[in-house]
Each structure stands twice: as C-alpha cells, then as structure tokens.
Write a structure and sequence with these properties.
With 301 residues, the protein is mainly beta. It has helices at residues 97-100, 273-279, and strands at 17-19, 25-27, 33-40, 48-52, 79-82, 85-92, 105-110, 116-123, 133-139, 149-155, 166-171, 184-187, 191-192, 196-198, 204-209, 212-220, 243-249, 283-290. It is globular, with a radius of gyration of 20 Å.
C-alpha cells in the first residue's frame, strides 16, 4: 500500500521513446509543466467531470474511474500539465450521454511552468441558471524549510453561503477548544490564508464564522508516515517537508432543511451515508499541497 503514495507526485520525469526505421532511438522532449489539482466546492449540484479539451497529453482531468465524477468537497491530486493557455470544460457526471455532454463551463486558464495550483470549482453567477459554475485559482506553491511542516486555511465557501468570512485556529486535536487570537483572522470567501510553518507534530484546524466561535467546524490533519525501505514519505502533519491545506466548505444544498439525501440534494449523488451526514453542516477537509522530498536517487516532486 505504501507504493500508492508515489502517485501523489505532481510532475513525473517521463520520456516517450520510439524506434525509427533505422532502429535508432528518439526521445521526445518534455514540455514545460505545471501541477494542476481540481477541487469541487459547488454545494448544490451533482458531481462533475472536468477535462482539458485542447490536447490529450499533459492534460489534467477529474476522471478517477468512479461512476459519479468529482463530488462536492472532493479533489484530484496535482497532475502534470503542459504550461500554457489551456482550454477547459466542465460537464455533469452522468450515465446519460446527452446530460454528460452538456457544457457547464467553457473557459481558458493559463498554467505557469514549475508551479502547482488548485482550480477550485465554485458556484457561478446564478441569474436564472441553477448550474452556473466558475473556477477560482489557488496558488499551491510552497516549500517548507527542512524539517518543518506548512499549513494553511482556505475558505472554499462562496459569497452568500455560510460560513462567509471565517476565523481559524491550530489546536492539538479537533476536540480541543481553541484559545487566543485566530491563526487566520477574518478570511474572506474563496480566499487562501498564508502558510504557517511549524515543527512536525499532530495538529488540527478549527474554524468558525468570523467573530462567532461558539459553533466550530474542524478536522484533525492527516499525520502521514516517514519514508522507509526506500519508499518516500506519506505527507502529513508529523512528517517534515509536508505542506497541507485545510479547506472549510459550506453545507451541501444550503436551502435544504433537515437530513441531506440523494433525493433532496444533487450533490449527494454517489456519496456514502457518513458523507451525507457530514454534508448537513459546514466542514473542514485536508488536502496535500507538498509531499516530502523522496529518498535520494528516486526523483523529485
């Protein structure tokens, strides 16, 4: 199972090799690459499929082999993507070809070389259309100092949703009440807070609506695993060289009162009972922004 962490590498060093008629070997040059991750922060729509449609190679997408697409509060890993202006489309994830071909968003976003970004899918301008969406670009470029861990809070709640602006604290765990001034104060909608670096140790992020700490939403950060037997480390709060983002999301289908079900909330399609329970309130989800450097001789991220 430890080998699976190698899939988190956002940019792989790859070469395409082919034989010519004279049996010589040619190596195609790799284009400039950036790392692109998709996160779905649209709380009232069914899961989506996201594709770069301008070319096949070096193109990020949200296809993960599942039946329901990229659901609310879910993410891809950073994927190696050719750095230039990229044509991106978003579709509903559906087994009906007519529905699955319906374009929710058609846009072009420029990807920079040697930089990791999140394309955060959020509700668009809702002027009669209930399925308008848009992207917000979040810069994920961070390199923690050796032996340290970087953490930040990202407010993935769109304007008009709860929470609006948020406060965030670092605590020992998600059961410990925060004290003192927030680590991230009055973080506006669809905004990333600054990274905070610290020594590796277990930690949680707790959040609340700005100025209203009585109701908290939080989560324990993944602890990770150190490298062993030549296998690179699994990123986490206890592993130096890691960087993590805690995203605070609104509840799913904000107009629904009571329990969230597949019948009353399109965002719940394909989700488990525990996920639907979590959807009934705002929540915090951690994502990995940087994995520790792999053992010497195994490549880099």
């Amino acid at each position: 199972m430890r080998l699976s962490r190698l899939l988190l590498l956002p940019v792989a060093t790859l070469a395409v090799v082919a034989c010519s008629d004279d049996d010589s070997v040619t190596i195609n040059s790799r284009p400039p690459l950036g790392g692109v991750r998709f996160i779905n922060a649209v709380p009232d729509m069914k899961p989506v499929t996201i594709r770069m449609v301008d070319q096949l190679l070096w193109s990020a997408n949200s296809v993960n082999g599942g039946s329901y697409g990229l659901r609310f509060r879910a993410a891809t890993v950073h994927q190696a993507t050719e750095a230039k202006a990229r044509h991106i489309r978003v579709f509903p994830a559906d087994s009906n070809i007519a529905e699955a071909s319906r374009i929710l968003l058609d846009t072009t976003i420029t990807i920079e070389a040697n930089k990791n970004v999140t394309l955060l899918l959020v509700p668009g301008q809702r002027t009669g259309a209930t399925d308008s969406v848009a992207f917000v670009t979040i810069n994920d470029d961070v390199t923690p100092a050796e032996g340290e861990v970087a953490l930040r809070l990202v407010n993935a709640s769109a304007p008009g949703l709860t929470p609006a602006s948020v406060d965030g604290w670092l605590t020992a765990d998600a059961e410990t009440a925060p004290t003192g001034a927030p680590t991230w104060d009055n973080l506006a909608s669809l905004t990333a807070g600054a990274y905070v670096t610290r020594a590796p140790e277990a930690v949680a992020v707790q959040t609340a609506a700005d100025g209203a700490p009585a109701t908290l939403w939080g989560a324990d950060a993944p602890e990770g695993e150190p490298e062993a037997d030549g296998i690179g480390a699994l990123a986490g709060a206890t592993v130096g060289g890691s960087a993590l983002s805690a995203y605070v999301f609104p509840k799913a289908c904000p107009t629904v009162t009571g329990a969230i079900t597949v019948a009353n909330c399109p965002a719940a399609a394909g989700s488990s009972g525990s996920i639907r329970t979590a959807y009934a309130n705002p929540g915090v989800v951690f994502f990995v922004d940087k994995i520790p450097a792999p053992p010497t001789g195994t490549g880099g991220n």
